[in-house]
Design goal:
Shape: globular
Number of domains: 1
Bound molecules: S-adenosylmethionine
Number of helices: 8
Order of helices and strands: HEHEEEHEHHEHHHE
Strand order of the largest sheet: 3-2-1-4-5-7-6
Number of strands: 7
Strand content: 15-25%
CATH topology: Rossmann fold
Radius of gyration: 18 Å
Largest sheet: 7 strands, mixed
Length: 275
């Protein structure tokens, strides 16, 4: 599979499905914060970096006329359901590569979450290409971790943040990249641009005890991909020794279950003006 480290397709899909439901809980049960008219027919929606289409399925369930909607998800890896989920088309697309020409200015809503770090120094170019897919009057919504990932938690969570930062650095991604999203959309001519910060509590810090367990599962699921990424770094991580890394997944799980942590997400959305 393409260069994105996962323990297994099944485990990755599962942890991202859980992640989508956690984020939804923190968005007061909504699939998105942009004011999309879910009562409208013939909506055309793109979810870039869609994994197995879990978010699109959630959005589809919220539409009044789902049968008339065109719902397309793209991802660099084929972890797509077989057979496909009815009404949802999933296809391979790398965010750093050109999009199909016929998709330009064609979507009522373009959604992309938790992937832009992959663009490294190409961030502005990649975002620019994504904004071109939105039709006049349509919306874009992006969600990425706020600067300081790993700060608000115990020692193992802080080590998580340090390793993620080191991986971003190796890709040429600066750690406060999410703060560029709002100015970027404004510079690109989008209007009604808003940023909402979601403070996602994990374990005992979750917003309700009902979701405490899934918030931990979601976080440790992501943590399991980290030792795989370490294997691709010549000489391993600088911020943690290999001995320490060996015990880290267990320490992280224990710490998140007992002490918890808070991770902040920036949700940024805006509308392309009508022509
Ligand atoms: C952290 S997951 C987020 C998935 C989903 N957007 C969500 O919020 O649950 C990152 C996703 O981006 C995909 N991905 C990684 N690099 C990519 C790239 N260069 N182009 C497109 N998708 C990519 C991965 O396969 C994975 O499904």
């Amino acid at each position: 599979m393409a260069a994105y480290n996962v323990v297994s397709a099944e485990a990755e899909n599962k942890r991202l499905e859980i992640g989508v439901s956690v984020i939804r809980a923190y968005m007061d049960g909504k699939s998105c914060l942009a004011p999309i008219d879910t009562g409208r027919s013939n909506l055309r929606v793109l979810d870039s970096a869609a994994s197995n289409g879990a978010w699109l399925s959630q959005l589809q369930a919220s539409l009044q006329d789902p049968g008339s909607a065109t719902l397309i998800g793209t991802d660099i890896q084929d972890r797509f359901p077989d057979p496909p989920h009815p009404g949802i088309t999933l296809q391979i697309q790398d965010i750093t590569e050109p999009w199909p020409e016929s998709w330009r200015s064609s979507f009522d809503f373009v959604h992309q979450t938790l992937v832009i770090y992959q663009a490294g120094p190409k961030l502005r170019k990649v975002l620019g290409a994504l904004t071109e897919l939105v039709k006049p009057g349509g919306w874009i919504e992006l969600m990425e971790p706020q600067y300081g990932f790993g700060d608000d938690g115990g020692p193992a969570y802080k080590q998580f943040g340090a390793m993620v930062n080191e991986l971003w650095d190796l890709r040429g991604t600066k750690s406060d990249f999410a703060s560029d999203l709002e100015p970027f959309l404004k510079d690109a001519g989008f209007v009604d641009v808003k940023t909402v910060v979601l403070s996602v509590g994990v374990g005992p810090k979750a917003k309700s005890p009902d979701i405490a367990d899934i918030t931990v599962q979601s976080m440790i699921g992501g943590g399991k991909n980290i030792p795989l990424a370490a294997k691709r770094i010549p000489g391993g991580f600088k911020c943690i020794s290999s001995e320490d890394l060996e015990t880290w997944p267990t320490r992280l799980e224990e710490e998140l279950k007992t002490e918890g942590a808070v991770t902040k997400m920036l949700v940024v959305y805006g509308r392309k003006p009508d022509v």
